[in-house]
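Lecture 7 notes. Example A: sequence first, then its structure tokens.
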Amino acid sequence: MSPVSSEPASAAPPVSAWTGTAEPLPQTRPLEGDRRADVVIIGAGYTGLSAALHLAERGAEVVVLDAAEPGWGASGRNGGQVIPGLKHEPDELEHQFGRETGRRMWEIAGGAADVVFDLIGRLKISCHAERCGWIAAAPHAAALESLRSRTEQWQRRGAPVELLDATRIAAVTGTTGYVGGMLDRRAGALQPLAFVRGLARAAQRAGAAIHGGSLVRELEVVPGGWRVDTRVASLTARSVILATNAYSDDLWPGLRRTVLPVQSYQVATRPLPEDLRRQVLPGGQVVSDLRRILFYFRLDPEGRLLMGGRGPLDDRGDPALFARLEAVARRLFPQIGASPWEHRWSGRVALTADHLPHLHEPRPGMLIGLGYNGRGIAMATVMGKLLADRALGATHAEIGWPVAPITPIPLHRWRLPAMALVVHWKRFQDWRDAR
């Protein structure tokens, strides 16, 4: 197979609102020598660690390899919103995939937050998890109509969701910037870096071996399975799980070109005074809106206001986009005044052309899960379990998620300039719709 092309400049995740409050990373020394295992997992984020945990708990010998350390990518940098469901509505899934497969998909996605919170409770992971609910906020009337349909579809399926009018959403969020929204009580929040490190510790306790600083440079088919090579070590396994998501490279042919990596930017204030905490998001929910280039925000456990948004791929972080987020936060919450901003950080989100997570099985014994479109805490954790089930022999029907071919996005090589143009165009459309 093709060799990988790059490795992280630093093994540690960037400094963020999360790095100072997460428990220390468990020891994950680089792989050494030549080893054998039942399953090797490449990527130590939510997908890979969830797969490792579920495999090890069922007796499999599992080795996880990561170029940096567990949680280095999106799993340790995201906004900590645990959101069930997909961009697609349940009716749309049933129409596109057929009644039975579509039903299994919305059941899996709709129950994804339950999987996360159940795991946290069972494993006693300390990550400030709270079932506080999520609000999908409508910035204009057209968006509210789409939420009306989404709410009705989920209510028909027994989900605890409700539509909010302008008065109600202003009361629970503390801002008059939205005309309404949908409250989903299945959702919640957590400290994302603490959660991924907790998953790593739990997987180790179950018997999985985790090795950071172990960039996989080559994969090859060998008798009885696969051989994985790093710069200084090798591993032979019956099955391989690739769980690299937005940081996928050329290790598997064409995989990198099946997703569009977009940079997600976040800023955080210093902890707000108690009187402001009673005015900003007084209902305690997490929020993301329905703009084409969305904003998402919450209070963290220390009372910081976190504001996030999307931008073109630029791993250095564009200062203008950070400043834009701070301006948006002050527009939505003028009561915060000149509250100083304490943290600025960013990371990649993997978007797919069809806005669905992808499960690939390009060859026997090779499993891949990626493409969570901004809902990675819940869906990546669930995808890890699905991949573990398949690696242990579950049929495709038993898994319940369709297997997709690896189909590169056309003109992927032009993604950087193209995404910059798309982001600017969508921002213009958002501005036009809000007029």
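Example B, a different protein, same format:
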Amino acid sequence: MGFGLLALLMIGIAGLTWGVLVFANLRTSPSLPWSLPAIIIVLWMTWQYLGGKGSPRSTATKRKFLLRANPVSSQAFAWSVVAGMLAIGALAGVWIVFARLVRMPPNPLLPANFASSPLLVAGIIIGASLVAPIVEESAVRGYLQTTLEQEFSPAVAVLLSSLVFALAHVTQGLSLPKLLIYFLVGVTFGTMALLNNSILPVIPVHVAADLVFFIFIWPHDATRELIWQSGADVWFWLHVVQAVGFTVLSLLALRALCRRRSLTRT
């Protein structure tokens, strides 16, 4: 419970910091995205501290262990990226299918909702796609899941960390379908971190996922029609096929990663 609350606190502080920077950016120079380099500096300093740098030195080893930013082989990294990108395709399909089945509130945090400069919108999207992956992977798949794996079975550790990950996204709307999808995202990323004993391969996949959803998925949520009103058109069934097909392919890639882990251990 303590590490779960710590993970939520870390995510909340990071989100608040990014929000303050964006607000200040909008008030001072709404056409120049200076908040992006500013948050990159904050993220770098946060990463260094969570990884064992800085005071107190008595906790340095523990912080480095909990962050779990361990190096992985190029093959494991490649399989992780392949599995993660396929999972993104599956989850995008699941999101659109859910949005056609039940009314999901649009994401209120879309940059275009409060910024008009294309340069600033792009800067906010890039910044948000760095803040969430780095902080959430550090807090949830690093500090939290690493601790859970010492107390529970690997499967239970992944499920519990995924539950906390889903709860961290209630700011995007208290919607059960949304929270279920975020839980599935957590299971995917948690499994990747578990198989690699590292969050390093997960971070770029998480960045790619946020970019895909910010650019291609979330901006269209408000215009998606429920099939109960407009009928199940060809696009709906294509997205069903997308969700199922990419899920199978992602599971196969994760299975290959798991086999490689077993071979490495033997």
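Note on Example B: The first helix runs from residue 2 to 28. Residues 43 and 131 are 7 Å apart (CA to CA).
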